[in-house]
């Protein structure tokens, strides 16, 4: 009876787990707007050209301390094809002000209702989603690492995707 109960429970859970896994494999088709509404970022078009890092973030102190590492990450792979877009969970006005004040060198958008967090089925702030050319989600790195370890982890993955040497963002690259 216990084995049967476990089997029934596994079969009940499995479809949800499969759906979650499928959701994580391919990036959703979506178009984001810049805070001023003048520019749009079509995720499927961006991923057609190469890897895209979607950074679901905010302007809290932890994300603020982590930002320089992600600036360095984008700079290291900018000419090699990486595109980064930060999606802030603040109003368009607050996002625009923050991005200008911090000198963000990559695209940014505003999502005060957190719709993208729902789309990517994540609750962690921040969450970094690395999407390969063609839209395959390669790596999801949730949470904040004020020492830059998350950015370094993503650097290793980006280097593999771009078939280039890993850039040292926070710590020396692994040999």
Description:
The chain has 175 residues and is an alpha/beta fold. It has a single domain, classed as Glutaredoxin (3-Layer(aba) Sandwich), CATH 3.40.30.10. Helix content is 45%, strand content 19%. It has helices spanning 2-25, 43-49, 61-77, 92-102, 115-119, 149-162, and strands at 31-33, 40-42, 52-57, 83-88, 107-110, 127-131, 137-142. The strands form two sheets. A five-stranded mixed sheet has the order 5-4-3-6-7, sandwiched between helices. Strands 1-2 form a two-stranded antiparallel ribbon. Helix 3 packs parallel to helix 6 (149-162). The protein is globular, with a radius of gyration of 18 Å. The N and C termini lie far apart (52 Å).
Secondary-structure blueprint:
Layout: H1 2-25, E1 31-33, E2 40-42, H2 43-49, E3 52-57, H3 61-77, E4 83-88, H4 92-102, E5 107-110, H5 115-119, E6 127-131, E7 137-142, H6 149-162
Parallel strand pairs: 3-4, 4-5
Antiparallel strand pairs: 1-2, 3-6, 6-7
Helix pairs in contact: 3-6
Task: Give the structure's gist in a few sentences.
This protein is an alpha/beta fold.
What is the average of the pLDDT values? Answer: 82
Q: Name the CATH superfamily assignment.
A: Glutaredoxin
Q: Which word captures the global form?
A: globular
Number of helices: 6
* Estimated radius of gyration: 18 Å
How many strands appear in the DSSP assignment?
7
Distance between the termini: 52 Å
Q: Please, how many domains?
A: 1
Q: Examine the coordinates and then state which fold CATH places here, giving the name of the CATH topology.
A: Glutaredoxin
The biggest beta sheet reads:
5 strands, mixed
- Write the CATH architecture name: 3-Layer(aba) Sandwich
Which stretches are poorly predicted, pLDDT < 50 over at least 5 residues?
Answer: 1-24
Q: Class by helix and strand content?
A: alpha/beta
CATH C-level category: Alpha Beta
Range of helix content: 40-55%
Give the SSE string. Answer: HEEHEHEHEHEEH
């Amino acid at each position: 009876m216990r084995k049967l109960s476990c089997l029934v429970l596994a079969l009940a859970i499995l479809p949800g787990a499969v759906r979650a896994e499928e959701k994580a494999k391919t990036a959703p088709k979506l178009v984001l707007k810049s805070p001023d509404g003048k520019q749009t970022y079509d995720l499927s078009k961006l991923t057609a050209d190469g890897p895209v890092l979607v950074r679901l973030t905010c302007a809290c102190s932890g994300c603020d301390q982590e930002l320089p590492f992600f600036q360095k990450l984008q700079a290291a792979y900018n000419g090699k094809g990486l595109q980064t877009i930060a999606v802030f969970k603040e109003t368009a006005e607050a996002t625009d002000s923050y991005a200008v004040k911090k000198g963000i060198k990559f695209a940014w958008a505003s999502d005060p209702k957190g719709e993208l967090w729902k789309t990517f089925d994540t609750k962690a702030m921040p969450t970094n989603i690395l999407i390969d050319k063609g839209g395959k989600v390669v790596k999801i790195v949730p949470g904040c690492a004020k020492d830059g370890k998350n950015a370094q982890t993503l650097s290793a993955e980006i280097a593999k995707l771009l078939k280039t040497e890993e850039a040292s963002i926070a710590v020396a690259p692994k040999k």
